[in-house]
Each structure stands twice: as C-alpha cells, then as structure tokens.
Amino acid sequence: MSLEGGQQGRTDTSGSEVALARSAPGSTCSGCAGLQLSAPMVLVSCLRRCVQLVILPVYILAYMGLWDSFYKKVFPRIMAKLAPMYNRKVYKEKQELFSNLRKFAGPLGQLRLLEIGTGTGTNFQFYPPGCRLTCTDPNPNFREFLLKSLSENPHLQLEHSVVASGENLHQISDGTMDVVVCTLVLCSVTNVSKVLKEVLRVLRLGGAFYFLEHVAADHSSWTYFWQKVCDPVCKCFGDGCSPSRETQKELEKTNFSELNLRRIYVPPRWIPTSPHIIGYAVK
To answer: Are 166 and 190 in contact (CB under 8 A)?
Structure first.
C-alpha cells in the first residue's frame, strides 16, 4: 500500500457518482429521471421501517433507559472477539500506515501518542517501542481488555488512561501530543467535526493524525443502498455506528496542512462496512 501525499492523496468520487446516475443524452425526460432517482430512496425508506420494526424491542428498552447500561457492558466483550478478526484482515495496511510514526517524534526522540477510542487496544502491536501512550474511551468497561493488551505489549509506556469522548478531551492540554490515532471510531461519534477540532487542539504543530475508518460507499452503488437500510441496526448494535458517514468530507474541511488519504475495501466487499479510508493528516 502506498499513501499518496498532500492534495494528491484526496479522493473525489463525485464524478463517478454523477456519471453513473446520469442517463444517456435524450434517453429519458427529466420527470422520468426524477422517478428513477427517487424510487431507490422510497425502497430504502420502506426497508428501514421494516428493520426498525424488527428491532422495536431495543427501541423500547432504550426509551426505558435499560439498553444503554446493558449494552455498554456487553459491547467490550463483543469487540474483544471481533477486533482480532478485523486486525487480521487489515494487518498489512495497518503495519504500513503506522510504519512512519517515528517520523513525528518530539525533539528528544520520544513519541507522545494519544489514541481516541482505544477500546481493547487492538492497535498497540503496531506502535514503536518506548511510545508514551495516552488512552481515551467513553466506555469504562473496556478497561479490563485494555490492561490485558498492555500486558501483551510491554514495549509501550502507558502514561494516562482517561474515560472521555472524542468530542471532549479537556483532560489533555493543548499541543502536547506528537500523534493522535483514531481507528473505527469516527463512524460512531456524535459529532465528527468536534472530534477533529479536539485533535487539532491537542496536537503540536507538525504533529500527525492517523486514521482508518469505514465510510459511505459511492452513492450510486448497491453497497450505499444497503448502508442506508442497515443504518438503524448498526446504530443499535454497533454502539452508535453509522456505515454511511461521509468522514472524508469532514477531514477535507478540517484545517490540516497536509492530508494523505486513500480508499481501500476490506473483505468481503459486499458487506456495508467494506469501504474504508486510510491515511494520516499533518497539523
């Protein structure tokens, strides 16, 4: 995998979307084209309602205030099983992505790294020896699995472990981090823009933000269709995850001096969470 630099690393899919959605000249009237475009959306809406009806018991539990406390205890155990499986699929991509972390070490050669949404610590094996690590996650029930991962990666030095959402990292001072890492987190945060603002705040000038996120597919594809249909299920059982989130656009709007990004597909390609973006951005 090669990460393209700067503006060359940005991917613009709008042209392909328009090309696929547009009819051949003179083939249909504008009214027919409108019907063609609206029909899939109507079908998406109907299927989503069916899905919501199936998971209605979850909505009822959430309304009663019972679902959140239960699921936050169960979710870390689910992720402890699923994370190693996912890591095997993207091992080479992660290995290459994090291979240049040392490039952003501070003047004394030490690397201060903050990971947002650390979860079970599935990225620890890719961090360089001596890395000074700060971990954050809004779910305190991940701590048991976090400590286990730390014991399996003695080359890391844990400095702080903070229970906090990515939108509010007030415990971390401005400009104190060389690197911020965020993988499979921006899909489920409440506000991507706020998280990225916090990333810029805690990074020193010249520091880097590393990311690997599943994102919205091409809007004219069947994958995007199923992303929209599955959205309610993913939010309920994926801790707020939205598979059709346009994370790339948020990164492009953020005031990074350099953005290195490319798209990949994690197998199997037919599942809604297959499209990903991977790369890093420099403050």
So the answer is: no
pLDDT (tens digit per residue) in 117-140 = 999 999 999 999 999 999 999 999
- Inter-residue contact 180 to 152 (CB < 8 Å): no
In 3D space, the residue among 257, 146, 153, 155 whose CA is nearest the CA of residue 207 turns out to be 257
Phi/psi of residue 270, nearest 5 degrees: -85, -10
Closest C-alpha among 77, 82, 87 to residue 145: 77
How far, in Å, CA of 184 to CA of 74, rounded? 18
Structure tokens at 243: 């598979």
Q: Average pLDDT, whole number, for the chain?
A: 88
Q: What tens digit of pLDDT does each residue of 189-200 get?
A: 999 999 999 999
CA separation for the pair 166, 137 (Å, rounded): 8
CB atoms within 10 A of CB 162: 15
Contact (CB, 8 A) for 128 and 102: yes
Length of the chain: 283
Distance between CA atoms of 9 and 208, rounded to whole angstroms?
A: 15
CA angle 78, 131, 1 (to 5 degrees): 70
Distance CA(242)–CA(192), nearest Å, equals 12
Residue 153 identity: N
**CA 202 from centre of chain:** 19
